[in-house]
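**User:** Once you have settled down, spend some time on the protein underneath, comparing sequence with structure tokens, and judge whether sequence predicts the tokens.
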Amino acid sequence: MTVRPSPVRNALTQWGAFGLNAVIGFLLSPIIVRELGDSAYGIWILLASLIGYLGLLDLGVRGAVVRYVARFHAQGDHASSSAIASTAVAIFSLAGILAVLVAGVIALGLPVFFHKVPPELVPDARLALLLGGTAVGVSLVGGVYGGLVGGLQRFDVSNTVGVGFDLLRAALVYLAVTSGYGIVALAAIQLLGASLRASANWLMARRLYPEVTVRRGLAERKWVATIFSFGFFSVLIHASGVLINQADAIVIAAFLPVAQVTYFTIGATLVQQAALIQRGITFMIPPMIAALQVKGSTEGLQRTILRASRAISMLLLPVAATFMIRGSSFIGLWMGPQYAELSGWVLLILSLRMWFGSGMSVLANALYGLNRHRALVPMLIGEAVANLAVSVALVKPLGVVGVALGTVVPSVLLLFTYALPVLYRRELGIGIALFARHVWARTFLAVVPFAAATWYVEHAWPARSVWEFFLQVAGVLPLAVIGAWFFAIDEEDRVKIHARFRRQPSPAE
């Protein structure tokens, strides 16, 4: 018997986990860069990007497990849940072996593919790649059990357990780099973390969904077709996302000194950490919509999507405004003045994508929940190809700034020319005019006072330390809250909030 999932608890624990990771990344990044050096750190990011491509062996299977387990659990069909999970484990066992083999091939060809990698670092890079490939294989199998937990919408449990692993990983990384160990030690810690997380997923699945049995005899070919009917398009979407997010480091390392990867990554990491905010909401959307679809409860879906998009935009826009106005100053205080200008330009450019694309992930996840996500494939493949082409064209004349432009320009152009005018209008009835009126206009107006105050503080009161910078941001943040209250929150929601605060407890309470 499982406890009923709580969207609020799920969201709070997810945000807590993301917040912790952001803090860990903020504290550890300067230490890792300082201890490893620009070249070794650049190689570590390059290896992480290459290993990220091995994640394509997911083949959309985990997403299919989440969706179908959510449906079968709602129907009380535990036998089908057992069969889908058993089949997924069989698929991922083969994919995990393949991940290790592919990592070995890449390790052997590393000096050929990336001739600018310093020769003395090649042996460590090869070993780190093999360890990383093994970690991917372990994560694939463990991800099936994580999918069972996700299908039950018990993200609160997995998030809470994940916090413990994140703290352990951070402690090990700190001890490793400050003790003089390099990228091989970091890769070993990554493998240890993947193994512990896979074990925890298995234990959580057994406890939360004891009716499910996973064994080889339950795996059937018919379920392979069921999984891939959903997962085929998911893997194309995932492949596009990986190419968009991971290709930057590979392009830079192929054409520029590998140390330049570090300058790009500093700015890109801040944007990636900020993007985790939206995942704190959107991760719940696909299983929730899948469960509602079974019950026939689709009333008000469009309105719900727009409200969620507006909420995410209101969370992200103050961050984007701060990055664009004060990003260079922050990087100088955080990582060192030598990174401020170049990494600051990367951060500013990448923040433009976050500014215009805020809230769009809700629409994409809604399509996943409705099993219409195949409609995303042409757009994302087009964006991935354009991203790679523009980045390669601009990397030599403009360096890492050109790679940042190669990431942003195709994304923004497709947003205005295809995503909203065509795709989401056709699939969800949400076109560019509706989205602009209900999301962009209201959230942009809401963030104007905050942005103006941020610009004034940057020019009139420059921060002298990271902590002073944070205090300044906290000081002007209430302006974003006030703006959200008057522009981004619906009148009926303001009434409900007022009523909730005015409500007096009854004698029975």
User: Anything to note?
Assistant: The chain has two domains: 61-219, 247-282+293-502. The first helix runs from residue 7 to 36. Residues 367 and 373 are 5 Å apart (CA to CA). The chain has a mean pLDDT of 83.
